[in-house]
Amino acid sequence: MPGLLIALTTGAGLLVIAVSLVMLAVMATAPGFGPNMGIGIRTRATKSSPEAWRAGHVAARPWLIVAGAVALAVAVADLVLVAAGVSADVILIVAMSTYAGALVLVVVGALRANRAARSVADEHRAGG
Q: What InterPro entries does the record tag this protein with (predicted)?
């Protein structure tokens, strides 16, 4: 029974992360969605202009989608592990490793976003 509780709680958290990341990847690159105070990768570079915002989020999009897909896959896998009789400790390790992996993917995406946005900002300053 502890395995089921752990799988449900970690799986729910992973599901929220998965949906949030995919929504961010889609919404932040939508036409008309630019720098704002609530949603997106908000660095000085990405907030510098609508073009920099879009370039940054387009660069981050694949990383965010992969992080979301991994989180979703492990949320489902948690329940499969419970059904297979895997111990609660193993389920917890798998889930926590996924949280860490998703965080790494999001950070890489944010770094890519910042680099792409800075490139656009530099072009604007250079008169391009």
A: SdpI/YhfL
Cβ contacts of 52 within 8 Å, gap of 6 or more: 45, 46, 116, 117, 118, 120, 121, 124
Q: Is the dihedral of CA 5, 8, 12, 13 positive or negative?
A: positive
Question: Which residues are CB-contacts of 83 (< 8 A; sequence separation ≥ 6)?
Answer: none
Binned at pLDDT 50, 70 and 90, residue 37 comes out as confident
- Residues 20, 15: Cα–Cα separation, whole Å: 8
The label of the residue with tokens 């799988």 reads: 7
| DSSP class per residue in 61-116 | HHHHHHHHHHHHHHHHHHHHHHHTT--HHHHHHHHHHHHHHHHHHHHHHHHHHHHH
pTM: 0.89
Q: What is the mean pLDDT of residues 121-126?
A: 82
The closest of 92, 85, 114 to 8, measured between CA atoms, is 92
The 8-class DSSP code of residue 48 comes to: S
